[in-house]
Specification:
260 residues; alpha/beta; UDP N-Acetylglucosamine Acyltransferase, domain 1; 2 domains; five-stranded parallel β-sheet; 44% helix
């Protein structure tokens, strides 16, 4: 049994790329180079991200080898990427195929690139991690510290203007829209950034500041400034954020209902 048959997600991505290449000849070369000539999802992701992040300081080939090294050392990086692709497909109405976030969504690209910098950080290669953080910010418009811990099934919608600090933790199955900040509340050192629970949705432009916790399945309304803990299954909104609903059913990150 070949790799395509053993991997339904990869099979779907290949089929979508083949159809897209037939439908749009101007992109056929790009789709063959980026997807169809590769044998696995990790090969595609390594090639695509290294092409995007290449610079005169570090060319695409060097980055490609680095990404492959990371994927070989930590299989969890690719498993998280798979969950992130599925999250985009299931939650974003603008995403009509599995290949769309893989190829075109820079929020997805930013998360996957940070997973590489996080691996570097854990390996003690902090200088290279910082270099790539800067490059990711330049190219993709999201500034995520290499030390930040990010779960699986995370959707970073659009990605523009997202800032995530060094000691921030993002749980599983979280949805974050553009302009979200997970930052500190001053110049203190140590553990100083938010902890975001599983199933949380952070609306566009929301700022969560300080070493506080947003409980599982909570919702933060667009443009809110959160300075205190948010209980699980609670909706907060405003500046500063106040509780507007409690004991809310469902999982906001999956429901993607922006209303408060």
């Amino acid at each position: 049994m070949n790799e395509v048959n053993r991997d339904p997600l990869w099979s779907s991505i290949r089929e979508e790329a083949e159809l897209a290449a037939r439908d749009e000849p101007l992109l056929a070369s790009f789709l063959h180079m980026t997807v169809l000539r590769h044998g696995t999802l990790e090969d595609v992701l390594a090639f695509h991200l290294s092409s995007k992040l290449a610079s005169p300081v570090m060319d695409a080939r060097a980055l490609l080898e680095l990404f492959r090294e990371a994927y070989a050392a930590d299989h969890g990086i690719i498993e998280a990427a798979r969950a992130d692709i599925t999250a985009c497909f299931e939650r974003d109405p603008a995403c009509d195929s599995y290949s769309t976030p893989l190829l075109y969504f820079k929020g997805f690209h930013a998360i996957q690139s940070q997973r590489i910098t996080h691996w570097l950080w854990q390996e003690g290669r902090k200088t290279l991690a910082y270099f790539l953080q800067n490059r990711i910010s330049e190219v993709l418009g999201a500034d995520i510290h290499p030390a930040a811990r990010i779960g699986h099934g995370v959707m970073l919608d659009h990605g523009t203007g997202v800032v995530v600090g060094e000691t921030a933790v993002i749980g599983n199955n979280v949805s974050m829209l553009h302009g979200v900040t997970l930052g500190g509340s001053g110049k203190e050192r140590g553990d100083r950034h938010p902890k975001i629970g599983d199933g949380v949705m952070l609306g566009a432009g929301a700022s969560v500041l300080g070493n506080i916790r947003v409980g599982e399945c909570a919702k933060v309304g667009a443009g809110s400034v959160v300075l205190d803990d948010v209980p699980a299954h609670t909706t907060v909104a405003g500046v500063p954020a106040k509780v507007v609903a409690q004991l809310c059913p469902g999982t906001p990150a999956l429901d993607m209902d922006q209303r408060v």
